Amino acid sequence: MADKKIKITLVKSIIGTKQDHRATVRGLGLRKLNSSSELLDTPAVRGMVNKVQYLVKVEG
Length: 60
What we know:
The chain is about 30% helix and about 25% strand. By secondary structure, it is of the alpha+beta class.
């Protein structure tokens, strides 16, 4: 299961969000609106996604 990937897309702007949420989005490899990154489906990545779930969309 460690080779399974998820695609994360930034769908809402980070303007006006908490500083640690902005850092989490950057840690996921997302920069601009509608940018995407494919990451391994690990508990650490899932925790980051849960923290900023109102800003991102997860596929796969």
